[in-house]
Amino acid sequence: MSVLKLTNCRDIARRITYASIKEILTNKPGNASPKKDIRSVKFSEILSNAMELEPYYYQLCMKGVSQEKGIYDHLYSAIVESKKKGISFHLLGTALLNMPIAYVAGTSPNLADLRSGLGRVIRELDQTEFDNFRKSLQIVSPSYLGRLDMSDYRNFSGSMYDVLVVSSESDRNCSNMVNGYVISFEIYEWFKSNGDSEETVTLEFLNLLSNYPDTLLYRKHGGRVSLQVSELVRSMLNSTANIMGISEFLDRYLTERGFNPGSTADLIASGLALYYLDKLYSNRNNESFTYNENPM
Predict the structure, then answer these.
(1) What is the reported pLDDT for 143?
(2) I need a labelling partner for 36 at 20 to 30 A (CA). Which of 4, 54, 114, 128 fits?
């Protein structure tokens, strides 16, 4: 198997990190952004979360190259460090999606191989991975806790893959993972065709929200709210091409009601990560990827 240079794990980590930063800096409806905090999330905290995940993505890439087991121990470590600094951790869904990508990326010569490797790694997520995920849940916001039939994650017994399979019935991120990151790759294809400008990121967020009711909204506010929001977005997209106008209206509508379609944002971050990694795979001779570490 052709393997990327070990030094490229730095580049891989920076690209995955930048995907989150790009998603966060885009003013998406109902999400914290440079223009506003929302009830449950401060923009400064979520941006800090994204940037502080970079070393964990690097460590995971190196682990994947050396075939050392363990992914979500890094999630637990990231949350603990965030708590020590007095910063709430808001990127559980993004980290859940993107940490396996970081683990596989260093041993993948192209995006097709990465997709195949993700399928294998997700299926192999074991009881230890779930133990670390459960420990992580014990210290993050209760709003992240979902239901598994009659018991929540904290009381579930099984492997991490088992958790993802059972949760996939009601959680879009979990369904995405156990089905080969199918939505993430759909999003990647969108960015590959349309670029990653603020308007295209906003439009893909709206497209996604119109087609897939947000499961964070579902968990926090119920299925009716989640479906109503998707129907509203779909109706607006069908009635006007003024994307930024739609976004501004929906931002007011969702924020005033405390509706945060956070699962949709997580999926955007994963699709952008694939988009930036594909650029690395497509041109191995590029200079190392960089981003502004003080984006504001």
Answers:
(1) 52
(2) 54
